[in-house]
Specification:
Shape: globular
Number of strands: 6
Oligomer: single chain
Strand order of the largest sheet: 2-1-6-5-4-3
Order of helices and strands: HHHEEHEEEEHH
Helix content: 25-40%
Length: about 170
């Protein structure tokens, strides 16, 4: 299922997101911000049920996962690959369909790449929440080349070489 099909499916399954400026909308955005504010596997596992619905479709540009159980495994593996990761929500915008674009800044320190160095990147997920304020659609627009790939020893050198030629 591609991103457009996934979004349309989420809209059909969950036609009533929280109302604009409602307490439910504020709770949904606050839960999302709290979830990503600190990236430890046990913390993510504890907060996941209040943040994402069972039928969530999630894509962070690196991988697409469907369902909260699959998302739990993916995020636990991701958390195990980093020394620390924090995401700061900078702002959010609501569209006419009740979906949100949330701009974030991430600071991440990988265990295997550039040890001891924080990597910084920005992203913009497109989010749709269900009536209970849990995420049912999450598509991240994120520059994975700057946020991850350029920090992998051989791959990073190749990306730099390509960029020098442009």
């Amino acid at each position: 299922m591609d991103t457009f099909e996934a979004l349309e499916a989420a809209r059909r399954r969950h036609p009533h997101p929280p109302a604009a400026s409602s307490p439910e909308e504020a709770r949904a955005l606050d839960a999302f911000a709290a979830f990503f504010s600190s990236f430890e596997a046990d913390r993510l596992e504890r907060l996941l049920p209040a943040t994402y619905a069972e039928d969530v479709w999630f894509n962070d540009t690196l991988k697409t996962v469907v369902g909260r159980a699959a998302l739990s495994h993916y995020l636990a593996d991701s958390a195990d690959a980093v020394d620390h990761c924090t995401v700061e929500i900078l702002d959010a915008t609501r569209n006419a369909r009740g979906e949100h674009l949330v701009r974030w800044h991430m600071a991440i320190r990988f265990k295997r790449f550039r040890k001891g160095v924080d990597t910084h990147s920005f992203g913009l997920p497109h989010l749709r929440f269900d009536a209970d304020g849990r995420g049912v659609y999450h598509l991240d627009y994120w520059n994975a080349a700057d946020g991850l790939f350029r920090h992998i020893p051989v791959l990073g050198w190749m990306i730099e070489a390509v960029l020098r030629r442009l």
